[in-house]
Amino acid sequence: MVGYKFCEKIISKSSDFSITIFGEEPRRAYDRVHLSEYFNGKSADDLSLCKEDWYSEKEITLYLNDPVKEIDRTTKTIHSSKGLTLEYDYLIIATGSAPFVPDIPGIDKEGVFVYRTIEDLDLIRNYALNARTGAVLGGGLLGLEAAKALIDLNLKETNVIEFAPRLMPRQIDSAGSGMLQNKLAELGLNIYTNKGTSSIEGSDRITALKFNDGSELKTDMLVISAGIRPRDELAKLSGIEVGTRGGIIVNEYMQTSDPSVFAIGECALFDHNIYGLIAPGYEMAEVAAAKLCHEDKTFKGFDMSTKLKLIGVDVASFGDPFTTEPDARTILFEDSHKGIYKRINISNDGKYLLGGILIGEAEAYNMLLQTVNNKILLPANPEDLILGSRGGSSQTENAGLAGLPDEALICSCEGISKGSICNAVTEHNCESVDAIKSCTKAGTGCGGCIPMVKDLMLHTMKQNGKYVRNVICEHFHLSRQELYDLVKIHNLKSYEQVLDNLGKGDGCEVCKPLVSSLLASLWNDMILKKGNDTAQDSNDRFLANIQKGGTYSVVPRIPGGEITPEKLTIIGQVAEKYGLYTKITGGQRIDLFGAHLSDLPLIWEELIAAGFESGHAYGKALRTVKSCVGSTWCRFGLHDSVSYAIRIEERYRGLRAPHKLKSAVSGCIRECAEAQSKDFGIIATEKGWNLYVCGNGGSKPQHALLLAADVDSDTCIKYIDRFLMFYIRTADPLTRTAPWLNKMEGGMEYLRNVVVNDSLGMAEQWELEMQALVDSYQCEWKTAIEDPEIRKRFNHFVNAPEEKDPSVKFDEMRGQKKAADWTLA
């Protein structure tokens, strides 16, 4: 990556150089930062940093799979492994690093891997097909990335072994590491710290790890990710000075002890430091290119602050994360319930931020980093930086942006300043993040700066007197809320009508699904009716969730999780007849996987005949209303939660919204239905029901907040009607209720005033609109099988309706079938 960046930099500065590249790997430069995405479906081409013909277009000679074996500094020549000899005027060593592999007995056994290249990942994936348990040696950044890869490979158990007393010892403190460890354990990782590995057991292949304390861990495979070692062997052989612990020593211009030879990236040792992040490597590439072009630029070291998402958990450290008294004062915030840990270190006089750590919630990272780097004076209450304002004025995000100097580094990967981004907006009319990316390259590296790039863009546009609107796309210069109101006012019923009356052009993949969702929310029309056939996502096209391997899943609605033995029998018969994999979901439904496209209408017919209907698991609609058994069976139950859950689900089934909706009803405060993690949840009290709203599970869990207490059943439903209609009318596309509330000015107090106190005077109208949607409900599966035109779309081959997709393959697993694992050609 750093070698490629050097080429970009040098050719942008001068056309006087003839460039030749030798690479050890068999492929052109690719993105190692996002390497784990290879297991999530990205191909090697997706990860590549440039198109295949980029080097030839730039007149760069590229030799792949041909590493340099010798540097002759006397004759200024290099010799490659394939016998090529070339002269050079200047030599750039960008050999990076290699994984550090500890000298442990048994390290060479089959089933032991390193995690560095795409080829390594191919070996890991192939071996994992026959493995049940895996382990990662190393609990740092790379180790946790490797653990994420093993989780993605569906191993039954993944273990992380760290020699140090805590995870990520170079980035976060003990308390933060403990919080991270708890979060990762909740996600299924087994973490072992303070563990020294004494040997790798097994005859030819690994079967277990033995530790210094005498304990043993059974495992089928091991990934080594215990650190990096600079690739300095070429320099050492040629007599170039290297550090006592490795690394090619360079000066501030990236020159080695030989002025004609430069070293950049993870192989370079500057001021006794090896920099293992991409941003400093890119800065080194810029400095080396500048030196060759006689520009005055030096490398002054680099801030190693970093923000990343480890297995779905935000982790960030910035500035000096570890400084303590008496050198600084520390402010800590810890919420073990939500898994959030925040630490900031401030100067003893309270004026400056020195550094900090964020676990579980790191949205403030970019502004905190800028506050450190630009020595911005702290507000009167520094704790506001991590806790938020608690009344009165505080330093707002825009005020913070305005206070940054033009030279403030926003994108460290590409070295892009605030001034460059603002200039792209004012001088080049860049009014989207993509436009700024294209113009400046900001945000094209790790991507961590994109939220701040967007904020800067909007802030600059407002400063220039431009009205910033959250418009849908180029075809509709309207927000979703404005479009919703206009579609309703003009009584528009199809996408074509909406586009002709309110938009321009032919539409796109952004506005078509959004408009289809609006029409379904407003009129409860069939999502697949003519003119509305481009729905919110691909799942809506076939009223089923497309799954791995090209098959579909069928999820019939089971209100409240209550089902009769007769209906259970029917589901079993259908699953057996069509060869489906069955699983009980977390939302109290039975999911049927592996259905062929052409079988979907047949499966639906049998389920509908038995009294089932669509569960809308494919749509941005109400998914489930989970319930406990309540007072019907439970000795603690206060009310009949099952009956009320069924009433709630049957009222709001099929309701289309900006995003999916989940609900639950618990029969007492023991909360067996987990109502407080739902978009709207209901908990029985001695006096009635408590209604909670805007909760969220998933990657960013958030507890729902109490909207109304001790209300009766009918009043509770009225409040839900109003809440849902307000959400449907005002939320941005693909926004769940939790972030919708988080962005709402006035927060929960405002929402309560609107819904409970009817401060907008809209309650009666919203209740009538909801009742109209309830009265017009239809089962989309039933409509689809009864409409010949819609039914045609479920034929995989037009001329052979009964034929199934021959590319669909299955494997056997625990007496059922599963989609065959994807393989790359």
**Biggest sheet features:** 5 strands, parallel
The CATH superfamily of the domain at 1-96 and 231-293 is known as FAD/NAD(P)-binding domain
Report the radius of gyration as a whole number of Å.
30 Å
Distance between the termini: 25 Å
CATH topology of the domain at 1-96 and 231-293: FAD/NAD(P)-binding domain
Number of strands: 37
| Name of the top-level CATH class of the domain at 1-96 and 231-293 | Alpha Beta
Quick summary:
The protein is an alpha/beta fold and 825 residues long. Helix content is 31%, strand content 20%.
Task: Describe this structure as you would to a colleague.
With 825 residues, the chain is of the alpha/beta class. Among the domains are: 1-96 and 231-293, FAD/NAD(P)-binding domain, CATH 3.50.50; 99-229, FAD/NAD(P)-binding domain; 480-536, no CATH class. The chain is 31% helix and 20% strand. The chain contains 27 helices and 37 strands. The strands form twelve sheets. It has a five-stranded parallel beta sheet. Strands 20-21-24-23-22 form a five-stranded antiparallel beta sheet, sandwiched between helices. The chain has a five-stranded mixed beta sheet with strand order 31-32-33-34-35. β31 (622-627), α21 (641-652) and β32 (661-666) form a beta-alpha-beta unit. α1 packs parallel to α8 (278-292), α15 (480-489) crosses α17 and α20 crosses α26. The longest helix is centred in the C-terminal third of the chain and has 18 residues, at 713-730.
